[in-house]
Amino acid sequence: MIDGDRLYGRGSFDMKGGVAAMMVAGARAKAKGVAGDILVACVADEEYASFGTEEVARNFKADAAIVTEPSHLELTIAHKGFAWFEVVVEGRAAHGSRPELGIDAIAKAGKFLVALEEHDRALRADVRHWILKSGSVHASLIEGGAEWSSYPARCRISLERRTIPGETQRAVQAELEAIVESIHAADPDFQAIVEPGLDRGPFEIPESEPIVATLDAVATRALGRRPARRGEPFWTDCAILKNAGIPCVMFGADGAGAHAKTEWTTLSSVRQLADILTDTALEFCGSAG
């Protein structure tokens, strides 16, 4: 539905507006004789593990890339990463009538959860990045126990650690293992192992990178002002592209309501985005004419 300058619909902001703009820009740049190849990549699985972009990065090379995730026509030059872990707390199964035999894995897991909350507070208080500020951690899922009348032999905690540049999955695992060891030192009956899962690293690109400088100059002319710089708390495909040796920056349309019941983008920002992407491609690649 269109109401004034707003186009409403699921995915309009995140990120069909961006997809439309880059398709139009690719066609326009080709028609104007861009000196080079332009790859428009519309990939699957971006909301989970980004296997689509991984496939693109394995099979194609490029001098630069622009990711058109929504950014309100501002330059996103950094974003956080994430690392998933499972902490498996071991207890000892026993009938509920025999407390001297059992070790309650769920109760023991509570000690880890309390320590995890304290660790999150410490992380967020340690501001170490100029735009992304700090990392964080939270428990996501918990599972344990078999029946009402038994001491649970195991409790599994799934957690997510949001990372900033300089933080790695290995370093995060060491943090979690240090928490486990500290609890075990105070309570020998506490036993747990830390299992790493999916890891997606953070992203940051220097403003001196040619694709960033070119897009910045083009956007400044088109908007009549220099676009603001952004650092996003969420993860995007920019990290995969950069790790594959493709310098990239994120720049997308305006709007609101990503993943919400009411979602919209502005037609004017999608048009501006298409114009900016076209001119950026022509200036970055040059013209064959």
Structure report:
With 289 residues, the chain is an alpha+beta fold. The chain has two domains: 2-79 and 203-285, Aminopeptidase; 81-200, Alpha-Beta Plaits, CATH 3.30.70. It is 37% helix and 24% strand. It has seven helices and 15 strands. The protein has a four-stranded antiparallel sheet. It has a four-stranded antiparallel sheet with strand order 7-9-5-10, with helices on one face. The protein has a three-stranded mixed sheet with strand order 11-4-12. A hairpin with a 7-residue loop joins strand 14 (255-256) and strand 15. Helix 1 packs across helix 7 (267-285). The protein is elongated and about 85 Å long. The mean pLDDT is 96.
E-strand count: 15
**Judging by the overall fold, what is the CATH architecture of the largest domain?**
3-Layer(aba) Sandwich
Biggest β-sheet description: 4 strands, antiparallel
Class from secondary-structure proportions: alpha+beta
| CATH level-1 class of the largest domain | Alpha Beta
Q: Calculate the mean pLDDT score and round it.
A: 96
Number of helices: 7
Intertermini distance: 40 Å
N to C succession of SSEs: EEHHEEEEHEEEHEEHEHEEEH
CATH topology assignment of the largest domain: Aminopeptidase
- Computed CA radius of gyration, to the nearest angstrom: 24 Å
> What gross morphology would you assign?
elongated
Helix content: 25-40%
What is the strand content? 15-25%
The number of distinct structural domains comes to 2
Strands of the widest sheet, in order across it, are 1-2-15-14
